[in-house]
Design goal:
With 99 residues, this protein is an all-alpha fold. 73% of the residues lie in helices and 0% in strands. It has one domain (13-98). The protein starts with 12 loop residues before the first helix and ends with a helix. Keywords: Membrane, Transmembrane, Transmembrane helix.
Length: 99
Amino acid sequence: MTKLPQTLDNRHWVAKVSAAILAGGGMTFAIMALLGRLIGANGDPRSLSAQALMWLTAVLWVLVLGSCFLFPTGRRAWAVLGGGCVALWGLFLLLRALS
């Protein structure tokens, strides 16, 4: 007997959306911080690098919000997005300490 693939549902939608907003938001800001560090953004909001980072953050966050419903449970969404957030901020802090 073969096992059928699990279907997606919206039973845990509150946990999934809160994970996308909080942990996904932190993850997108960590990506922005890492990329800003790597490309040498100077913090001037009128510069091309700052504008690119600002728009990239909005696009990434919308992608995370849209894809949060692909997780089977809210707990899995929190684990993946929260773990990614912690890992990316840790990488940023390590990169900042080394330079």
